[in-house]
Amino acid sequence: MTIDISQFSIRKAHEHLMKKDFSARELAQAHLDVVAEKDADIHAYIEVYDDVLAQADIADKRIASGDVDTLTGIPLAIKDNILISGRKVSAASKILENYHATYDAHVIGLLKKANSVFLGRTNMDEFAMGGSTEHSAYGVTRNPYDLSRVPGGSSGGSAAAVAMGGALAALGSDTGGSVRQPASFCGVVGLKPTYGALSRSGLIAMGSSLDQIGPITKTVSDAEILFKHLRVHDPKDSTSLPAYTQQRSDGKLTIGIPYDFLEKGVDREVRRNFDASVKKLENMGYSCTDIKLPHVKHSLAIYYIIMPAEASTNLARFDGVRYGMRASSDTLLAQYVKTRGAGFGAEVKRRIVLGAYVLSSGYYDAYYNKANSVRNLVAQDFDTVFGANEKRVHAIMTPTAPTPAFPIGERTADPLQMYLADIFTVPANIVGVPALAVPSGVTERGKLPFGVQFMAPHMREDTLFRIGKDFLGEQQ
Length: 476
What we know:
- The chain is an alpha/beta fold.
- It is built from 15 helices and eleven strands.
């Protein structure tokens, strides 16, 4: 049969592989052909692996044996901050340009057991610091819908790879929306699981209390498949949650909408699309109600204190002594300065300086401690609306981003405007709840994708999957 990968999801591809309609090698080659055709313009990948077909041949042998997993032979793209043993991993930074991982990330080990096929490592904002994939040491990634616009970030390469047909699905990381925002900009599905649901072992850290690996897929069902496969407790990660059972959310669901949070800074077309999405859910039988999250307006300020503080601490290990780039100098201090000065890009330096400032003596209590106190208040707001009283809601709905994908270069000189793109996504990371971004339409003129986001209580990804499948018309 002709392999039209634009029509394939993980589930459909698996069914065809089981029927021997085509081989894993042919499926992998079809994706490599798309990458060869399109990626010179889009630059979703930093590196396409040279052993892709050899990986697929191993998957074919497993399929022939009958010992098959749903992810066997499925071509995946991996963000360049997730370790694969023996392969380069750079976090899109010059300071790790030639670093080879010495072990597998926990999620990679699980995918290897299934004999998934790794196509390559995708471009990203350096050390996941950015919302546009313009802050990579290896060049800008472009939006497959409009090459003059950004794909979002920091997992922009992963989202662009899936959107252009250059991978069946991808892994990204989400610290403040870095899976969901690029998924929205590129018209695909992005899941940020509950904090600790997927192990962070083998993920190059940015903000340790915020980071979470998540899948980027074509369908909600595919996000569910990847989530369930990777949802395995990891004793190497102290934040890894014990196994929990995904329950089915039966009965009528109520979705809360913080309308007062949507009043400022939202593009008019985004708001029209969001209101139409609410009406669509109501027509399906969902109850949508206005809710109050009094402290959520402070989320962005909290995030841009806590995240730089944690990032500056995590990036202190990149000093030119232990691994990565090393600039030679006469003294140890000069070596630190020269290595970090040459190895880090402007956005990384900006956040390190900001983080060091808020952690410094005299400012720790004024900024970092205060941010953590307000973080607890935001968490209490979520606990209240998700509570057990008669006014509880099963999920919270917002736009994923306040605007569609913006032009390349428009915000690089104005970091504040770039940071404001995270306004709807950062609360889920601050509180640790799961969140799902799904496509919700396109703009009238530019045909750029819109997305809406659903957030659910801790460990209730099942609720998100039900709502997302209903919204996109997928079979439950």
